[in-house]
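Supplementary Methods, section 5.1.

A reviewer requested that the exact input to the structure prediction be made available. We therefore reproduce it here, unchanged from the version used in the analyses.
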Amino acid sequence: MLFATYRLALRNLLLHKLRSVLTLLGTILGVASVIAMLSIGEGSKKEALEQIRKLGSANVIVRSVKPQTNEIPSSTTSTNVLAYGLSFADLRALESLRLDQSTVVPAVFHKKNLQHAKRNVKGARIVATTERLPDVKELPLRGRFFNADEVARSANVIVIGQSIATDLFGFDDPLGQSLLVGDDAYRVVGVVSYGDSGTARTISKEASDQNRDLFIPITSAQNRMGVVQRLVETGSRQYVRVELSEITIELPDQNQVRPVASVVRSVLAKNHGGKGDYEVQVPLELLQQAEREKRLWNLVLGSIAGISLLVGGIGIMNIMLATVTERTREIGIRRAIGAKKRHIILQFLMETTVLSTSGGILGVVVGVLIPIVVSWVVGIQTSTSLLSIVVAFGISVGIGIVFGVYPAYKAASMSPIEALRHQ
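The structure derived from this sequence is encoded token-by-token as follows.
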């Protein structure tokens, strides 16, 4: 009987093809918008969360920040050398905290030109650090990182990013070869590769390609590059003195992150006398905040897209009410020859179920294809989850059935005599 009811429902819908297709569009667009919006939102938030996780949920990161103009001492501006940020005294103060099983890694950033044979790279970012950087930062490394002995000897060894390796060495293996960093020659001991795209957006919103970073011992940078760097801007030239660009503290337990961050802020506030030339960043706090924002964002996107499903359900109710009015005489005849109320209700509910199910299936197909097209055209990351597909399809079918109950009940409640007299 159910199969016969289904065939009858399908035949009745096909009698008005255009009307049925227009009704389907509401459900298709509703389901597709739910899946597509959640996929795009999930992809962008997933990428942001991944970047924060790479910083280390058990890390405390301190960065030098260029102070505002009104915070620069007059003696500094008169010599045209701007001194700010973290110092080796700050590093010693943080190391003196003697946190159990913690790792403290300093880093200094420089900009230098590179050369190998006839190939050049302008303004590459040099990260001068210690041998313990791989302990606090994930480095997909081929070859090796420099060791403690090379740091102690200020050895001319370097680890380069994959993009730099391609620019300078082409298809040759860079391991064991030399390149010029400024005027000094360095031997390549390792290559860092973050895959097809190493582009990351840091917490400070500065976009950087991690595959273009180079790593050298911090002692080599001190001996050969100094701490004063020249910044050339349009129409001006300025020198800055930054001893340390960044200090990363890795802790053995996430529960220690917030207390240690509070202690670090107190120590640095005392050393810097209230100057705003540094910032303390706690990836764990940022990660938790980003996850809360992600949940809220998904709720907002889902609610907006759910309105489309609601509109589709209203469309189904509207078309079924019109169908009931058109088929009043048919309903009277069926009741007169013995059909009961439940048969009439089942007939019209079957029609709404066919509409909502068909629209849901087509909407799922469209909703899955949209994020793929967006990723291909725009180049942003999307992530389609099975849960979003199941929820969107289930809601579409549920809304279709719920909004079909009233028209079906109205049809079944007609008096057979009045229905037969209907013109």
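The mean pLDDT is 80. These observations are discussed further in the main text.
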